[in-house]
Amino acid sequence: QLSELWFVEGREMKLGSGMSLICIFSLYISVPLSISEAEGAFDYFTLSYRSFGIQRRSDNGLVLREWAPGAEAVFLTGDFNSWEKQSHPFTQKEYGKWELYLSPKVDKSPAIKHLTKLKVLNTSRWAFYVFGLISGPFLSVSLTFLLSRPQFQHPRPPRPSSLRIYEAHVGISSPEEKIASYRNFTRDVLPRIKDLGYNCVQLMAIMEHAYYASFGYQVTNFFAASSRFGTPDDLKHLVDTAHSMGITVLLDMVHSHASSNTEDGLNYFDGTDSCFFHGGSRGNHSLWGSRLFNYSSWEVVRFLLSNLRWWMEEYHFDGFRFDAVTSMLYHHHGIGTSFSGNYSEYFGIHVDEDALVYLMLANHILHKLYPQCITVAEDVSGMPGLCRSIEEGGLGFDYRLTMAVPDKWIQVLKEVRDEDWDLKNIVQTLTNRRRGEASITYAESHDQALVGDKSLAFWLMDKEMYTNMSALTAMTPVIDRGIQLHKLIRLLTHSLGGEGYLNFMGNEFGHPEWLDFPRKGNNESYHYARRQFNLVDIEHLRYRQLYAFDRDMNLTEDKYGWLAAGQAAVTTLNQADKVIVFERSNLLFIFNFHPCNSYIDYRVAVEHAGKYKIKLNSDELQYGGHGRLVQDTEFFTEPMPFNGRHLSFPCCAAILSEPQKSLLISF
């Protein structure tokens, strides 16, 4: 019984010029109480996937239950009845629900076989597996249900204190020009993730989507694992194998909108435009062409909360990255809106209180029922309290994505010469986050890899990546600059930018080219819808050097835990010298971003007295550096005040002798 968990003391919170959250907080408390009264238990309400859709009884009888309040009649058709459209009608129940019972066959087997194709009206929104052609009209009648139950051998790993996320898409996880499978990912990619030192994999495009090129963000079936990658058991095996490696698994959760498809999606499920969504223009996203959920609807909340429980219970995911939270929070969906940080932008009639309360409900049940669960919000607005506890009046997320950081790096590389980089602005972007709210930072994600943009490596080295990445020949100036800056950008982002770190698959080794899914515009080609991991396996290619640096960067963080430490203390930010020095977690980070200048006896401030040693050096040969720093050099503090510290020491010529290098020294 979860209803008792909801009796939280309501207290007024003042924000800005007298604005208050008490109305939203009170609304949040009243919602679960009314649900508990009507449903018997809030737990039962959030496990509705056990009563809706297709359910098998102990005698192999089948019960089908759907919610279609606007329908006049509902029928089941499929292989089992030779696609007779009206031979198996549902019976109408109260509150818009419909039911159908199918008795077992004479031999006591279910009336519908495993992997039988079915259709309920346009589609069954509770279908657990959708199987059919990858494209084309046949998909609309290729709905199946799954009778198996998960078999997991390994427990969920402990929640990481330092979250290092590997963002991945199963379909593009092979060098081959094809759609890769769950089994391929399990066999070939998970070992690489483990080797690289990432302790979490974030899986994109798992929820079923008809259009492959949507990157999984136009969901047609919320309870079905995408069949284009394999079976549900294959996905469960992937998750279980990741857990055996100590890797946490997050699901990219799309509850902000849904595909507008009518044949295989939720749209017009009961013949109206307002079954799951707002009716009229409010229910349509003007930029995405998708449908927007009505979060004030009892049955929509049942559907969405049960969806979260389904993925946690049936597939053993460890949490979710909630997509497009900005679109959910505001009636304007962030369209044509810029956020300056003024509280009036976050509190007012333009906030969708129903969506806000839904997110509070979602975070509450996830963290109460699964204390180790991780929730991440993709929000560009900077909503205050997003990552504060619900008891404090927050929305309850664990992390938010620092979406301004990758935009800053792309802007710098596109528009500014190296010698003109504004380091103060870069550091401000990396450190500008809400105090007391954890952030996941990244230099680039899937957004920057998509066609129309470039990855950081491609911005840095462009066409020379095709011809000059061999370590058997001398580096050209373009490749040299690109490799050095690629390492510096990632380490600076990793160490200064947040409490978690994210990397999109392949970018760790400077994956060339862009990402483009098969579509009419590229003659349905898979050439760019893949990740060329084979480049790392060729010993003489410099991709291997970038891979090695990314691995050792993560392993060094795993040892010293700077992501779990407090925000860094920047002691040197010299715009003219292009030098950044900061301390975090008993580590001293030194960056020289100058394109040509070297420095001798460059003094750096430190907090702790003693001996310092080099722990990570971007100039090592194995990382594509020049090997000109003395790795076993030791440094001893001097009682000389400098830059706000009582102690300091000079970096000899061996330390900052090379431009565009980074150094990590431990105490």
TrEMBL record:
<dbReference type="GO" id="GO:0043169">
    <property type="term" value="F:cation binding"/>
</dbReference>
<keyword id="KW-1133">Transmembrane helix</keyword>
<feature type="active site" description="Proton donor">
    <location>
        <position position="378"/>
    </location>
</feature>
<keyword id="KW-0328">Glycosyltransferase</keyword>
<comment type="similarity">
    <text>Belongs to the glycosyl hydrolase 13 family. GlgB subfamily.</text>
</comment>
<dbReference type="InterPro" id="IPR006048">
    <property type="entry name" value="A-amylase/branching_C"/>
</dbReference>
<protein>
    <recommendedName>
        <fullName>1,4-alpha-glucan branching enzyme</fullName>
        <ecNumber>2.4.1.18</ecNumber>
    </recommendedName>
</protein>
<dbReference type="InterPro" id="IPR013783">
    <property type="entry name" value="Ig-like_fold"/>
</dbReference>
<dbReference type="InterPro" id="IPR004193">
    <property type="entry name" value="Glyco_hydro_13_N"/>
</dbReference>
<feature type="active site" description="Nucleophile">
    <location>
        <position position="323"/>
    </location>
</feature>
<feature type="transmembrane region" description="Helical">
    <location>
        <begin position="15"/>
        <end position="35"/>
    </location>
</feature>
<keyword id="KW-0812">Transmembrane</keyword>
<dbReference type="InterPro" id="IPR017853">
    <property type="entry name" value="GH"/>
</dbReference>
<dbReference type="InterPro" id="IPR014756">
    <property type="entry name" value="Ig_E-set"/>
</dbReference>
<keyword id="KW-0472">Membrane</keyword>
<keyword id="KW-0808">Transferase</keyword>
<dbReference type="GO" id="GO:0007399">
    <property type="term" value="P:nervous system development"/>
</dbReference>
<dbReference type="GO" id="GO:0004553">
    <property type="term" value="F:hydrolase activity, hydrolyzing O-glycosyl compounds"/>
</dbReference>
<dbReference type="GO" id="GO:0005737">
    <property type="term" value="C:cytoplasm"/>
</dbReference>
<dbReference type="InterPro" id="IPR013780">
    <property type="entry name" value="Glyco_hydro_b"/>
</dbReference>
<dbReference type="GO" id="GO:0003844">
    <property type="term" value="F:1,4-alpha-glucan branching enzyme activity"/>
</dbReference>
<dbReference type="InterPro" id="IPR037439">
    <property type="entry name" value="Branching_enzy"/>
</dbReference>
<dbReference type="Pfam" id="PF02806">
    <property type="entry name" value="Alpha-amylase_C"/>
</dbReference>
<dbReference type="Pfam" id="PF00128">
    <property type="entry name" value="Alpha-amylase"/>
</dbReference>
<dbReference type="GO" id="GO:0005978">
    <property type="term" value="P:glycogen biosynthetic process"/>
</dbReference>
<feature type="transmembrane region" description="Helical">
    <location>
        <begin position="126"/>
        <end position="147"/>
    </location>
</feature>
<feature type="domain" description="Glycosyl hydrolase family 13 catalytic">
    <location>
        <begin position="185"/>
        <end position="534"/>
    </location>
</feature>
<dbReference type="Pfam" id="PF02922">
    <property type="entry name" value="CBM_48"/>
</dbReference>
<comment type="pathway">
    <text>Glycan biosynthesis.</text>
</comment>
<dbReference type="InterPro" id="IPR006047">
    <property type="entry name" value="GH13_cat_dom"/>
</dbReference>
